[in-house]
């Protein structure tokens, strides 16, 4: 299907596979990536694409999939199948955690039934046999060690070992104390020699204590002696340990026998884990290159919208550059695109982008292109890229090209995609051009699809007249003499040979001599192409500028409509509040009048009581009397100019706060731990004495918190979860206090902790950017986090 086979290397597909392998959690997943091939089965391609796209959605939008441990269950199942063998504690632990992952994943998708149908199909009809893990759990603990109560015999043996060790320790302690009191021991404490607990005895006293000498010091002044009374107890411990080992083997053998019937099911679980690791790696790579799932067609057509070369995208991302997107269509009307233009103008990258993205899609990989792009399915992909001369086959560069052309012409059909770089080069242009034209005509008759790059004028002319073939050129700024890397379909491009030679500094007399040697017709055609390209560039720039202005106008109109709606809604809300307040005032006034009348009647017109009731009525009425607002003169407004640190009160409430910052007509106010923005005309400056004491106390304590806050944290040596938790607390305080940046010391190591911390912080919109410390001051071992 792919011809020649090294095309996968030349187009960059092999490098893409290596980048995907780097995301795998297991060797099994990496092996599956190695087996990725370009497929032609349409249904299979769609299935793999949907799986990768669904996993990408999980990684970007859903909670974390519980994939924690991946071990080779296939190898364990193969060992279990053999009668008489048994798995070790470590192997049972691997099976235990791998099965826990399997069941957690299945539970995860069962909770989201129907949401990820293509991923759910991976374990469709797969039985959940939790009896396996229950059997293992009864024997192996969470740390991968055999449980002391795995059997009654093991419990008794373990208890016997513990008892014997205690007796031996008690006995040797007594002897050691006695020997020390007699002055027979050397300085130091009990020590282990040959796995036995010994007493350090001075050499001259070694015969005063009965026992067995296991070692002596380098100077010979101290011997390490195991007392005779302890020797028997230690031997007993050793015998019990041997017995315990035999019992453990017996338990593990029995457990292995119990799991032997489940060996085929373990293989199925192994397959699920491998596929999940494989799809996860593809999804992570898709996120790296900002890939999407295109529309997939069973026809031999391509429509790429804003496509980018994935390897170039990753390279440019490191350099903080952007790739110029590619837009190209290859279909029944435009079967072959002939791309021309100057050297280093992007022709080959353009063609390789088309070829690599086609291979990626047919291998079930998402591509860095707009999701509305359409990618067809081809039975064959033929590529002629680079120099394939061979000493062994006695082939020159041109002979190698011709050998490929022979295969192309004989084997190509309407479901073939051809990619030819520098078509016709390698021999005398007088003959190479016509041969290339003949090959192109033959391929066109076979209705093949593809893209070729060339400098030959005869191919440009042929493409302009032949049905199904379209000229295209890489745009070039012939004023600044630099490529723009934009593909324009519809016209051929000049090679800008004389212009580039002039910019490089080739002597003018040499250029003039060269121009005289070029035929008049050829020179006229090339000049027309240059002029046409210049005019097209001017039109393109003008159109771009107009589009930009139109977008700005549309944005301003939308903002104006939004603001208008906002003002109308506020107006209606204020009217409703005013009406409600007026109703409340009237209601309260009526109640007050009725209460006053009732009071006068009940006091039987007592003058003093009547006077007090009338005064109370007048006071209440004056509270709700609307006083005219007198605008302050401008001079007074200037004297009341706000500045950071001033205390203010919102005019429409009793809320009190302190000014943090002034931005044009807006004031940023701190109200406790909160921040709010208000218009200057909505705040009234007040003195510090007018601020309630409890509020001043809150602000003073808040100020001390800010003063004691340090925007630096050291998480070196911490576990990943603990480090993230500590950084999360620091991050929350920094946001609350308006801190601009944080400094995180995590060390270099293998870069795992650094990646974990950065991936965690990326999910916060408040994080503007992250960067390493200067190389002289810690480099990648320190991360600076800049907050928006």
Automatic annotation (TrEMBL):
Coiled coil: 529-627
Annotated GO MF terms: ATP binding; ATP hydrolysis activity; ATP-dependent DNA damage sensor activity; endonuclease activity; mismatched DNA binding; ribosomal large subunit binding; rRNA binding
Enzyme Commission no: 3.1.-.-, 3.6.4.-
Gene3D superfamilies (UniProt xref): 3.30.1370.110, P-loop containing nucleotide triphosphate hydrolases
Residues binding ATP: 341-348
Transmembrane segments: none
Job of this protein: Acts as a ribosome collision sensor, splitting the ribosome into its 2 subunits. Detects stalled/collided 70S ribosomes which it binds and splits by an ATP-hydrolysis driven conformational change. Acts upstream of the ribosome quality control system (RQC), a ribosome-associated complex that mediates the extraction of incompletely synthesized nascent chains from stalled ribosomes and their subsequent degradation. Probably generates substrates for RQC. Endonuclease that is involved in the suppression of homologous recombination and thus may have a key role in the control of bacterial genetic diversity.
Protein name: Endonuclease MutS2
Species the sequence originates in: Mucilaginibacter polytrichastri
Gene: mutS2
